[in-house]
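User: I'm curious whether this sequence folds into something compact or stays loose and floppy. Could you predict its structure so I can see for myself?
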Amino acid sequence: MEYDLIKRLSQYKKILVKLKTMGFVKVFSDNLSDALGISASLVRKDFAACNLTGKRRGGYQVNELIEKLNILLGKNSEQRVIVVGCGKLGSALMNYRGFDTEQIKIVAGFDTNPQRQNPDGAIPVFPVDQLEAYIREQRIQVAILAVPEEASLQTMERLESYGIRGILNFAQVPMRSSENCNVENVNLALEVEKLFYFVNAQQTRLRIKEQA
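Assistant: Here's the prediction. I'll summarize afterward.
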């Protein structure tokens, strides 16, 4: 499933939840397209791709759409995640409260540095040698990887061999998904560079417009 589609599905769900609080029982593709600033045909195309059905004149049932979108997005139950690498970035992610509202719970961290380990913390941080046992016993499927560059590839391979099926990779080395494990690479420096590119391009367009 492509990233842009997943992003739109999440946006559809948020709009639907808001409409439900306003008393809406059913919606039409036009309602969602107007809220997102996209075409109604794209909404219908997205829904068809995900087998989200409605009636041409009767629209879509709000409760049914929310339920199905929650299943597609993994929000129908609490999603448990571990963090591997509990330095500044890993610790910041563990303390991020925004996950709670999305039914995502970071249940444990793992680090090689004894000074960062705290098995009795609100979110316990364990030695890395306990990683395999914890993943298998707790049936963890998703991990956030925030280890140093030199340890990233080996750690990813270990996580996959232990049964992890999804990795959000904050390490500086981009990694590829495999047959058994999906990897999403997050490069914060690249994201900032992209922002500067768009800001500079916008300023250039404004200067050209002013000079015209």
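Summary: The longest strand covers residues 104-111. The mean pLDDT is 89.
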